[in-house]
Amino acid sequence: MKNFEFVNPTKILFGKEMITKLGKEIKANSVNKVLLHYGKSSIFKNGVYDQVVTTLKENNIEWVELGGVKPNPVLTKVQEGIEVCRKEKVDGVLAVGGGSVIDSAKAIAAGVLVDGNIWDAFEGKKRATKGLPIFTVLTLSATASEMNAFAVITKEDENKKWAFSAGYDSYPKVSVIDPSVQMTLPQEQTVNGAVDAISHVFELYFDGAKHTDIQDEIAEGIIRTVMKHVKILLNDPENYESRAQLAWSATLALNGLNSAGRTWGDWSTHTLEHSLSAYYDIAHAAGLSIMFPAWMKYVYKNDIPKFARFGRNIFSLEGNDEDVAVESINKIKDFFDEIGSPTSLKQVDINEDAIEMLTENASLRAPIGVLMKLNKDDIREIYKLAIN
Amino acid sequence: MKNFEFVNPTKILFGKEMITKLGKEIKANSVNKVLLHYGKSSIFKNGVYDQVVTTLKENNIEWVELGGVKPNPVLTKVQEGIEVCRKEKVDGVLAVGGGSVIDSAKAIAAGVLVDGNIWDAFEGKKRATKGLPIFTVLTLSATASEMNAFAVITKEDENKKWAFSAGYDSYPKVSVIDPSVQMTLPQEQTVNGAVDAISHVFELYFDGAKHTDIQDEIAEGIIRTVMKHVKILLNDPENYESRAQLAWSATLALNGLNSAGRTWGDWSTHTLEHSLSAYYDIAHAAGLSIMFPAWMKYVYKNDIPKFARFGRNIFSLEGNDEDVAVESINKIKDFFDEIGSPTSLKQVDINEDAIEMLTENASLRAPIGVLMKLNKDDIREIYKLAIN
Q1: Smallest CA–CA separation between B331 and chain A, in Å?
Q2: pLDDT in tens, A37-81
Q3: Chain B residues touching A225 at Cβ < 8 A
Q4: How many independent structural domains does chain A possess?
C-alpha cells in the first residue's frame, strides 16, 4: 500500500426530507447570503427549489440566483457567477443540482477569491487555495462532486475540458443527498449516473498499484452494488431503496476513500472521453461507456492478474487469468449494452473521420495514464478500437 | 437505508515515516503545548517515542508527559491527566499508543473543559460537548479510536466499563498510522487487534437493518481482508503490506462509514464482554471472541437471511439459509481458534460460578441489543452458552 494522507471534511445529510436541515447548517457555518446556483428547470418541477427556499427563509439566509448551468459546465458561466458573487457580496455558494452544477459552484467559490482569471488555476499557471464555503443539494448521483474537492470545467473557445481543485476549501461544507428527489429522473440520466460512478471506480482500481486488498474489496463492492441497483431502477424507477444504494455508492466511488493507498488513479479514459464531449454533444457517461472497453482492450496485458480478479469478483468468471481478463472486458461491454449506454463511437454517429481531431485534443497533455503510459499513437489506436 | 448524518473530520497520515509530519500538523492547529500521553514502555523500545519527540522539537511544541495507561483505561488515570493539563496549561492532547491510550486522551481532552466530574458525562448526567484538540500516533490497530469520536473508560471502584463521546471535538484532528511500528508487536496483540476490528464490523452488520447492500459489501470486504492478513502475520509478523492492510481495515471498521445508513449497531456482545473485562484481567478482544459465537447462537434466528449471507460471502458456504447460518457460526469460532483467540470462558478459567455476577453486571442497562432485545434471563443464557 502506498503512503497516503486522507481527510474529507464534508458533512453528509442523507435521506428523505434532509433538505429541511440545510438552512441551519448554512447558518452554523456563519454564512448569511448565498449564490443559489442551478441548471435547468427540473428543480422547479420536482419540488427541490421550494424545499431549498423554505429552509433558507426559515434561517434568514439571503440569496441571489444564477441558473443555466449546462451538463458540461462552461467557463463563461463560472465567470458570470464570480461577477454576481462579488457584486452581491455573497459569502457562500449553494449548488442545487448534479455534478455539473456543483463543479461550476466550486470554480465560482474559488474564483471569487482569486486575483485574476480562474482559468489560470486550471492551466496550472496560478494556485487557487481558498474559496467561499460551498453547500450542495444533490439531484443526480454520478460524479461524487458532493463529497470531493474536484471540479471539471470546459473552456468553450479552446475545447478544453479540464479539472481543478482549490484544496480543502473545495470540499463542500455540507451536502444533502435525498435519494427520493431522484425518483423522477429520466432513465437516461439514471443510467448515466451509474456509468459515471462505475467509471470512477475503474480509474482507481486499474491503476497498477499493488497490495490494495481492502481498497479493491471496497471498489468491487461499489461496482456490484451499482450494477445491481441500476438494473432494478430500469424497471422500477421509484424504488427508494435502490435510489439510496445507487446514491451512496456513487458518492463513495470518488470521495477519496477508494483512492487512499493507491496511485491517484489512471484517468486516461476520462481524458479520452473529455475530448469526445468537448467536440460532441454527448453525455460524459455515454463517452465513458464507449471508451472504457476500448481502453481496457488496449491496456489489459499490463495487469492481467487485476483484470482476472475483476472478472472473477464481478462476473464470477472461472478459468485462467488471461481468458478471464479478456472475457471480463466483454462482460462489462455487455452490461453497458444491457442498461442502454452506448459502447461504440458509431452508435453516437462519430466515425473514422473524427479520429485525428480527437487524438490531437486528447494528446495535448500526453503521455497520459498510469497503468500504461499512452502517447499519441496509443491514443489514436484506442479511438480506433472504440469505433465499432 | 436509514437516514443518516455522516462527517469525519480526522486527517489520516498513513504509511512509513509519516510521524515526521506530525509536529507541523499540530502547529497548523495552533497548538503549542501538548500532554504526551502513553501506556507502557513499548514506545521507548520501538523508536516511536524518539520520532514523536523529534517532530515536536522541530516545530517548537512543548510537552508534558503522562504514561501508565492500562489496556482497559481507568478513570483515575483520566482524572490525573485532567489535573496535569490544567496545571501545565496545555492546549492539546497527543496520544501515542493503542486504542486505550487514545480513549484515555479523549476523556482527558473533554474533561479539562468540563465543569465538575467527567464521569457524569459517561453516566449521562452531564453533557460534554467540547474538548482540547486531540492528536494520535497509533501503535496498535484495533479499536479505530484514531478515527472516531468514542472512548471507553472503566470506573474501577464500581466495575463499570462505559462509553462516551464529546461529539465533534472527540474526533482526533490528526492521526498518524505507520504500520511499520506494529511489525514488532507480540503475536497476541496482533490477534487481539484483528478480533477487535472484526467484532466492530459484526456489531454493525448484524443489526437487523434492511437495504444495506453497499454497507454490507464494505463490511464483508473488511472482514475478509482482516481474516486473510492476520493469518499471514502469524507466520510473517514483519510483513509490512499485511500490517498495512490490517491497520487500514481496522480503522475503516469503526470510523462511521460502516455504520452510516444502519442502526447504530447492536453492541450487546460488547456489553457482555465489558462485564467480563471489568472483573477479570483478560483482553477485550479475548472476551469478544468468547462472547460472539455464544451471542450468535442465541440470536441468529432473528435474522437467518443475514447470517446466511455472512456464511456465503465470508466462508463460501452453500446450502439453505438455516444450515448456512448455523454453519457460519461454527466457522467463525473455528477462525478464532485458528488464530489463537479464546472461544470459551473455560479457556480463560471462568466457570459457572461467575455467571450470576456477570449477568448482574451486564444487566445494569438491560434490555440491551437491537437485533434481539436481551433481558436479564437472555443475558444469563448467553453466558451459559459461552462456558464451553
Answers
A1: 21
A2: 999 888 999 899 999 999 999 999 999 999 999 988 999 999 999
A3: 213-214, 217
A4: 2
